[in-house]
Amino acid sequence: MALVPPHVASLQPYVPGKPIEEVEREYGVSDVAKLASNENALGPSPMGLRAAREACGRVHLYPDGSAYLLKKALSDRFGVPVDEILVGNGSNEIIELLVRTFVQEGEEVLTSAQSFIAYKLAAHAHGRTLVEAPMRERFHYDLDALHARLSPRTKVVFLANPDNPTGTWFLEKELVHFLGAVSRDALVVLDEAYVEFVDAPGFQDSLSLRKRHPNLVVLRTFSKIYGLAGLRLGYAFARPEVVAFLDRVRAPFNVNLVAQAAGTAALEDEEHVQLSRALVHAERPFLEAGLRELGATVVPSQANFVLADFPGRPGMALFEDLLRQAVVVRPVAGYGFPTAQRITVGTRAENQKVLTALRKVLGR
Fold first, then answer.
1. Cα–chain center distance at 44
2. Tens digit of pLDDT for each residue in 211-230?
3. Can you say whether residue 153 is alpha, beta or left, with left for phi > 0 and alpha for psi between -120 and 50 degrees?
4. Residue 246: C-alpha distances to residues 50, 95, 204 (Å)
5. Quick one: which of 65, 93, 96, 116 is 20 to 30 A from 14 by CA?
6. Ordered DSSP codes for 260-293
7. How many angstroms separate the CA atoms of 182 and 154, rounded?
8. What does pTM read for this prediction?
9. In terms of DSSP bridges, do strands 33-34 and 327-328 run parallel, antiparallel, or are they unpaired?
10. Can you tell me the distance from the alpha carbon of 160 to that of 305, in angstroms, rounded to the nearest whole number?
């Protein structure tokens, strides 16, 4: 269309994980194991779910546009002042807001190639230049390569730790070295969507780092550990003036009433957090070992998923074969991993199901 600018016309839309209902309809299967979208295998926080149900009786009212109670709960939980907290319709909305608010024409967004595709989509959607540093050893962020690509035009840097879709991570000492090289006039956005699952030594304490690096923005989400992906709720910690400008740009009532209530309650649900973390820590090694037995190259992960590479097996063909076995995983050819699948850590039954399905389609 002549009305559409070139940077919009060239956009490739984000492709989400295939819904269970669609798989059942298209492939005539049932009892589908969806291990494609890094969702919480235990479901939503029970405390969050109860609050969401109660909030449904008030959905004829607009939500609190400032999300005060949710921000206050986040402030109490993490010791961050309310004026340093932004909430969004998923952390994806905040990623888009950061580009729209702070990256002007002629300036650049910097990130790692093959990392979370939302960074690239946000830059391209606003016609901004995207600079990507290559990964090292195929699957790992290379902060030295990112350092080499910093320039006076760099305005926002996106770092995912742990990364999606690889599950790999870098250490605090590496991050501190990188932060020291970034201009205070640029924002470094640390996306910690999977931070609650991390148990690796040497991982960053981002809340402490913020005190020494005021240009650091920390992104987190309720989608993973709290199991509220369907309500779309994310949040950011940033210095007050950054939050104030993002608040000017965001849509009014960007976080709905039900999501605000569920998130506020879920923050108190420590039992669900501990159970969700324990499940991943127990089941991730089981899934990794089973995948290796099937000949896959399994990338070490600190998230609630693993990336498994099946050399010689085109990713889309293997994905389709697994759909016929009522198993949904995530092919990642679009990230530059043409023979890999990202597989969410599920329950023992779900993990056994995906391994059984793989054994069948791989002829093992």
1. 17
2. 999 999 999 999 999 999 99
3. alpha
4. 31, 11, 25
5. 65
6. HHHHHHHTT-HHHHHHHHHHHHHHHHHHHHHHHH
7. 9
8. 0.94
9. parallel
10. 14
